[in-house]
Amino acid sequence: MGVQVTNADKGKIGGGLSPGLYLIATPIGNARDITLRALDLLKTADVLAAEDTRSLRHLMDLHGIAVGDRPLLAYHEHNGARMRPRLLGEMAAGRAVLYASEAGTPMISDPGFDLARAAREAGHAVTSAPGASAVVTALTLGGLPTDRFFFAGFLPNAAGARKTALQALAGVEATLVFYESPRRLEAMLRNAVEMLGDREAAVCRELTKRFEEARRGALSELAAHYAETPPKGEIVVLIAKGDSSSGNDFDLEREVTTALETMSVRDAADYVSARFGVKRRPVYQLAMRLSAGTDE
Question: What is its EC number (predicted)?
């Protein structure tokens, strides 16, 4: 009563799909990383929607699946508000609508989120056919702990906002996972050293493709490497969680004194507490005393 149940592609009479929205994962690099179930859905869905219709058409061509006379519609962040009513109308008319992101699993940094939410709110069944994901693939290759991880997507473009975002994640007790662009990678790694400390990290690049790379090291080492060797391709960055015991391994007063040379009391407290994973309040109190020239 009042609980929505998805049909998990239960067939209609005649072998077709039940009405609703079908989300399929597409390869992140290697075209063969597509599931049999996704191929079946591509063959039988009534309406096809994709973040990039050219990518989906190419994928279907590779696997010998014809679009035929079925609609193949673009659905992305720039036209979502205009296209959603059309796709919801197709579902309401009893058709099975398939949505594919450009690469990887829908809903992960992907414009399909609003479509899936609208479909649920309209009472339509929503089914996911899982598959490739850059986040999970990077975690399997990066060599950092995977028992707990926090996916933060893309960081802001501007350096100040990026540092603020990194600082907010300093206390997260899990491996941090980010998407990053090649042109910002070095700056992002150096900002991470500033705000998180020189933690262990991994840069996973061109996953499942010919030049796949998973390079592991300290954040500062990785930043230096990519300064000399500018990266190409799509990138996932993993950063190890901070060591909560690190407060015993450094001179807090010295670090605060150094920070106060170029920062205000508030900024120095924020910076040191984030960098070394210690509570902010005692750091702020120490900064206040040092700034006032006393050490009580």
Answer: 2.1.1.198
The domain over range 135-239 is classified in CATH as 3.30.950.10:
yes
pLDDT tens digits, 11-47: 443 348 999 999 999 999 999 999 999 999 999 999 9
- Residue 165 clears pLDDT 90, i.e. is over it: yes
Residue 29: C-alpha distances to residues 17, 134, 212, 232 (Å): 28, 9, 10, 14
Q: Which of 92, 99, 96 is nearest to 115 (CA)?
A: 99
Sheet holding 175-180, edge to edge: 149-154, 175-180, 235-239, 200-205, 213-218
Domain range list for the chain: 20-131, 135-239, 246-291
CA separation for the pair 169, 16 (Å, rounded): 47
- Domain spanning 20-131: which superfamily? Tetrapyrrole methylase, N-terminal domain (3.40.1010.10)
Q: Helical H runs in 66-212? A: 80-92, 112-121, 134-142, 159-168, 185-196
How far apart are the C-alpha atoms of 282 and 155, rounded to whole Å? 29
Q: Computed over its alpha carbons, how large is the radius of gyration of the chain?
A: 24
- 271: exposed, middle or buried (Cβ count in 10 Å: 0-12, 13-18, 19+): buried
Q: Which one-letter amino acid corresponds to residue 115?
A: L
Give me the sign of the Cα torsion angle 77, 81, 85, 88.
Answer: positive
Ramachandran area for residue 106 (φ above 0: left; ψ -120 to 50: alpha; else beta): beta
